[in-house]
């Protein structure tokens, strides 16, 4: 199996469609992150732990739509619930309906820090609404985020996500950097940037900004700069600093919520935020599945309509049917679901570490439950964004190309991450590790034969 490589001649239909769509879709894709800089994929369908391209090639999927598909592709209970809602009840109501209560009740049941919720259409909308809510509740304007953290593409939070280090300022007090053009400079005045896993630096920033910070928005596990777990005491210290200074703590659990545990990272680390945002795994791949919620006294600002939040498609019954079916499985079969997710991830991480060690490739494979990422060229655990940024992106890039050519797919950017699903089995693990072993050997030999770059 490890010697099998998808031949370029078996990608003719994929290439044809990819070239055609560039004639009508700006950039050839509606989300730049999905574009492969090397070998494009035009997907036709998914099934369980795999998807298929337009030429019929099968790929084991460790990306899972960036994480939502916790049960793999096309999970029958979720699909059946959505189809039933569409065919028997319709796609849009624009009025309250019983699924509002059912889904809301189950989220509140699963996440102990939450009393009330509101539904959104994306993680970006949920985090934006949470930031606005925090500002309304506290009467303050500034939000603190971490350098390298991602909370959405909107103007309010598309700041200091993977900033170039030559413009990012000192690590202990990073500059706030806009993510590309088109974002007004004034947005930099509303967001303060800190460093993840740096309590001393955070305390200095909070003293400097005393009285101006409404909230800290935080991925409790940094999952948009690879996988960077919180160091011991980091989340507890963060909670304490917020309490001492009248700052709300927002956990962006768009990636971690309902994935690392039923109650998310806050359950895993026993640290309760004031506001939580969810997306991705919440609906097991159901489009536009997102929500935010928090303590009653904070959410009552929404109840009283003191802060504006709303959209045509919020809380539509088609999406909530998918979320409802997902939560039924997660709540009623918690031990089996999370046990399987962790078992598959553990097997992959153990196998990858063994491959890289045996082949003499320096790498840190970092994992929290069913999420992991590999940082090449790192001898010590990665604890901060700038350390992750200095990983060997070239080795990762070539490894991804070689694995994709062998029918094993993971995201091609070295600061993304891998996910397991309940659809993965030991067969997918064994096949993937064979491909990774062969790909690692090929990449190691290839890069060793490259001419040295000037200055290296």
DSSP, total strands: 14
Unreliable stretches (pLDDT < 50, length at least 5) are none
Mean pLDDT: 92
Fourth CATH level, the homologous superfamily of the largest domain: Type I PLP-dependent aspartate aminotransferase-like (Major domain)
Write up this protein.
By secondary structure, the chain is α/β, with parallel strands linked by helices. The chain folds into two domains: 8-65 and 334-448, Aspartate Aminotransferase, domain 1 (Alpha-Beta Complex); 76-332, Aspartate Aminotransferase, domain 2 (3-Layer(aba) Sandwich), CATH 3.40.640. Helix content is 37%, strand content 14%. It has a seven-stranded mixed β-sheet, with helices on both faces. Strand 7, helix 6 (234-245) and strand 8 form a beta-alpha-beta unit. Helix 3 packs parallel to helix 9 and helix 4 packs across helix 8 (296-303). The mean pLDDT is 92.
What descriptive keywords fit this protein?
single chain, 456 residues, alpha/beta, Aspartate Aminotransferase, domain 1, Aspartate Aminotransferase, domain 2, 2 domains, 7-stranded mixed beta sheet, 13 helices, globular
Topology:
Layout: H1 12-21, E1 43-47, E2 50-53, E3 58-61, H2 76-88, H3 98-110, E4 116-120, H4 123-138, E5 142-146, E6 191-194, H5 199-208, E7 213-218, H6 234-245, E8 248-253, H7 265-269, E9 275-278, E10 290-294, H8 296-303, H9 317-332, H10 334-358, E11 363-368, E12 371-376, H11 385-389, H12 393-405, E13 408-409, E14 418-419, H13 426-448
Parallel strand pairs: 3-13, 5-6, 5-7, 7-8, 8-9
Antiparallel strand pairs: 1-2, 2-3, 4-10, 9-10, 11-12, 12-14
Helix pairs in contact: 2-9, 3-9, 4-8, 5-6, 10-13, 12-13
């Amino acid at each position: 199996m490890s010697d099998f490589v998808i031949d370029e001649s078996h990608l003719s239909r994929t290439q044809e469609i990819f070239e055609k769509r560039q004639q009508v879709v700006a950039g050839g894709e509606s989300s730049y992150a999905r574009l492969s800089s090397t070998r494009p994929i035009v997907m036709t369908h998914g099934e369980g732990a795999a998807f298929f391209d337009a030429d019929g090639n099968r790929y084991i999927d460790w990306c899972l739509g960036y994480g939502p598909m916790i049960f793999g592709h096309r999970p029958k209970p979720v699909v059946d619930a959505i189809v039933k809602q569409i065919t028997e009840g319709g796609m849009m109501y624009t009025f309250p309906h019983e699924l509002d209560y059912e889904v809301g009740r189950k989220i509140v049941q699963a996440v102990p820090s939450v009393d009330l919720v509101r539904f959104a259409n994306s993680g970006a909308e949920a985090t934006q609404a949470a930031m606005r809510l925090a500002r309304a509740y506290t009467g303050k304007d500034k939000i603190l985020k971490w350098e390298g953290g991602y909370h959405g593409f909107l103007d309010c939070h598309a700041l200091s996500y993977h900033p170039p280090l030559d413009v990012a300022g000192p690590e202990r007090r990073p500059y706030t950097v806009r993510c590309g053009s088109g974002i007004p400079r004034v947005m930099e005045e509303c967001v303060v940037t800190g460093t993840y896993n740096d309590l001393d630096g955070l305390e200095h920033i909070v003293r400097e900004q005393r009285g101006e910070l409404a909230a800290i928005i935080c991925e409790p596990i940094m999952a948009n700069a690879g996988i960077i777990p919180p160091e011991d005491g980091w989340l507890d210290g963060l909670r304490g600093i917020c309490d001492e200074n009248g700052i709300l703590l927002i956990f962006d659990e768009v990636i971690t919520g309902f994935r690392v545990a039923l109650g998310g990272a806050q359950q895993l680390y026993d640290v309760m935020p004031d506001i939580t945002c969810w997306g991705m795994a919440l609906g097991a791949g159901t489009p536009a599945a997102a929500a935010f919620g928090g303590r009653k006294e904070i959410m009552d600002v929404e109840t009283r309509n003191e802060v504006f939040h709303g959209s045509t498609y919020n809380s539509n019954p088609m999406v909530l049917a998918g979320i409802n079916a997902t939560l039924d499985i997660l709540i009623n079969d918690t031990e089996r679901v999370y046990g399987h997710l962790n078992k598959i991830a553990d097997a992959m991480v153990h196998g990858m570490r063994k491959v890289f060690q045996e082949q003499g490739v320096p790498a840190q494979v970092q994992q929290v439950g069913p999420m992991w990422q590999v940082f090449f060229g790192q001898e010590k655990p990665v604890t901060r964004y700038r350390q992750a940024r200095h990983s060997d992106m070239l080795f990762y890039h070539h490894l991804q190309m070689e694995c994709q050519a062998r029918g094993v797919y993971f995201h091609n950017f070295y600061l993304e991450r891998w996910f397991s699903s309940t659809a993965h089995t030991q067969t997918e693990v064994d096949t993937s590790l064979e491909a990774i072993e062969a790909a690692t050997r090929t990449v190691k030999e290839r890069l060793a034969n490259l001419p040295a770059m000037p200055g290296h």
